[in-house]
């Protein structure tokens, strides 16, 4: 596993990180979750990404990770980068959502209690909230670091202009934002518009999530929609209407390139991101050790010939999300 510096900080992150948005809650198989966490760590994955609302019920991914960490990896705490976030709906009532100081402070205290940690390595503002002044959110994040509840601060899913303002306000108080996290994959390239240049100019690392576009950039849907897939389960994030014949025809063409490279389609989609010098780490999700290992194997071939890269862009041209 290769480790990359996060922006111009001294923080190193592995090329591939394990995210716990899905498959680590109380509604999931905890033994499988344990096996995936341990397998990831044994293969060089040191970064585990959480949020206060991950899992069903909300918060259960943090609780389960905390129990597994305390039982299996307690002696390795200083070898791990554990991140969490606050910004989406967590509990009912006026103070359980958003970016207010009240919500952020309550959230990190709850998250530390659920995980049993003394601090998070990185704590994120999970999304931009136009109802809360940026100054209030920035000051809460600054105070979290100064109180020792997090070592570093990150932002996720902020418009570029708002992220730039946050970077500046935090830097002015000597608490630099070290990482920006957002959705990025072969199809969804919105961050290339402004965020990539902003992060490079500001010395901020970039961590991507949804690298497989909710399974679209895998062989999952090449032969129809499986009943146990996210589309088959009527997911709020991927619907049958998204899986168009035109898109699937393009995915089949991509799969041909992947086979020629000696990779699965998922591996090629991950390798495509790992080839970008502005990507610090890619967060993967997994439902089994086998799937996890398949994704980890993508690190063995991350070079793309100019002709391959051009061909990929041509295949996906009419499907690209840029705005």
Compact overview of the structure:
The protein has 323 residues and is α/β, with parallel strands linked by helices. It has helices spanning 30-42, 60-73, 101-115, 134-146, 160-172, 195-202, 245-261, 265-274, 289-296, 306-316, and strands at 3-5, 12-14, 16-19, 47-49, 81-86, 120-125, 150-156, 177-183, 205-209, 281-284. Strand 1 and strand 2 form a beta hairpin.
Overview of this structure, please?
This protein has 323 residues and is of the alpha/beta class. The protein has helices spanning 30-42, 60-73, 101-115, 134-146, 160-172, 195-202, 245-261, 265-274, 289-296, 306-316, and strands at 3-5, 12-14, 16-19, 47-49, 81-86, 120-125, 150-156, 177-183, 205-209, 281-284. It is built from 10 helices and 10 strands. The chain has an 8-stranded parallel barrel, surrounded by 6 helices. A two-stranded antiparallel ribbon has the order 1-2. Helix 1 (30-42) links the parallel strand 3 (16-19) and strand 4.
Observed structural traits:
alpha/beta, 323 residues, 10 helices, TIM Barrel, two-stranded antiparallel ribbon, 8-stranded parallel barrel
* N-to-C series of helices and strands: EEEHEHEHEHEHEHEHHEHH
CATH architecture: Alpha-Beta Barrel
> Rounded to an integer, what's the Rg over CA atoms?
19 Å
Number of domains: 1
- State mean pLDDT (0 to 100 scale): 95
Read across the widest sheet, the strand sequence of neighbours is 3-4-5-6-7-8-9-10
What is the secondary structure topology, with strand pairs?
Layout: E1 3-5, E2 12-14, E3 16-19, H1 30-42, E4 47-49, H2 60-73, E5 81-86, H3 101-115, E6 120-125, H4 134-146, E7 150-156, H5 160-172, E8 177-183, H6 195-202, E9 205-209, H7 245-261, H8 265-274, E10 281-284, H9 289-296, H10 306-316
Parallel strand pairs: 3-4, 3-10, 4-5, 5-6, 6-7, 7-8, 8-9, 9-10
Antiparallel strand pairs: 1-2
Helix pairs in contact: 1-2, 1-9, 2-3, 3-4, 4-5, 7-10
């Amino acid at each position: 596993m290769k480790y990359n510096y996060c922006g111009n900080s001294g923080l190193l992150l592995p090329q591939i990180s394990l995210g716990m948005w899905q498959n680590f809650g109380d509604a999931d198989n905890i033994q499988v979750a344990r096996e995936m966490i341990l397998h990831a760590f044994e293969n060089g994955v040191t970064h585990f990404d959480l949020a206060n609302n991950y899992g069903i019920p909300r918060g259960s991914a943090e609780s389960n990770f905390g129990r597994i960490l305390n039982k299996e990896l307690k002696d390795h705490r200083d070898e791990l980068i554990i991140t969490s976030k606050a910004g989406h709906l967590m509990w009912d009532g006026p103070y359980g959502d958003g970016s207010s100081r009240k919500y952020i402070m309550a959230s990190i205290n709850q998250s530390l209690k659920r995980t049993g940690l003394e601090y998070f390595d990185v704590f994120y503002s999970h999304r931009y909230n136009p109802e809360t002044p940026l100054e209030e959110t920035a000051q809460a994040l600054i105070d979290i670091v100064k109180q020792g509840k997090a070592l570093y601060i990150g932002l996720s899913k902020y418009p570029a202009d708002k992220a730039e303002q946050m970077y500046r306000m935090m830097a002015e108080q000597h608490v630099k934002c070290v990482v920006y996290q957002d959705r990025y994959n072969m199809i969804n390239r919105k961050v290339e518009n402004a965020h990539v240049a902003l992060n490079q100019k500001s010395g901020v690392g970039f961590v991507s999530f949804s690298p497989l576009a909710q399974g679209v950039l895998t062989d999952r849907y090449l032969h129809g929609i499986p009943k146990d897939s996210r589309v088959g389960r009527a997911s709020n994030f991927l619907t049958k209407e998204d899986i168009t014949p035109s898109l699937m025809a393009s995915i089949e063409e991509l799969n041909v390139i992947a086979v020629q490279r000696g990779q699965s389609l998922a591996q090629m989609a991950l390798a495509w991101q790992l080839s970008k010098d502005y990507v610090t780490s890619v967060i993967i999700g997994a439902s089994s050790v086998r799937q996890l290992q398949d994704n980890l194997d993508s690190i063995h071939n991350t070079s793309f010939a100019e002709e391959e890269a051009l061909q990929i862009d041509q295949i996906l041209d009419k499907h690209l999300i840029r705005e």
